[in-house]
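Readers outside the structure-tokenisation community will struggle with the description of the input data as it stands. Showing the layout once, in full, would remove most of the difficulty. For illustration, here is how one protein appears when written out as sequence plus structure tokens:
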Amino acid sequence: MRGPNEDSNYLERHNDDLVNGLSSKVAALKRVTMAIGDDVREQNRLLNDMDNDFDSSKGLLQSTMRRLGVVSRAGGKNMLCYLILFALFVFFVVYCLSR
């Protein structure tokens, strides 16, 4: 039969073991959350870079469309047909090269 002092020591050791287990789980959780935070920061950086790239592409496309409008007004219907045929040819060549 154990005395009250032995029960107290047993409970203290058991409690210390549980605290150590909880401490290791908290440390592992901290490492995971820090890794998630790093990943989120990296993804935000990539998204910002993509946004900048899309903005520059949008500006380039707008200026090209403006020029196309000028060409179509200046050259008439025949020039617009040639321009569309040229664009289709360019897309076909890029398609063939990308395959």
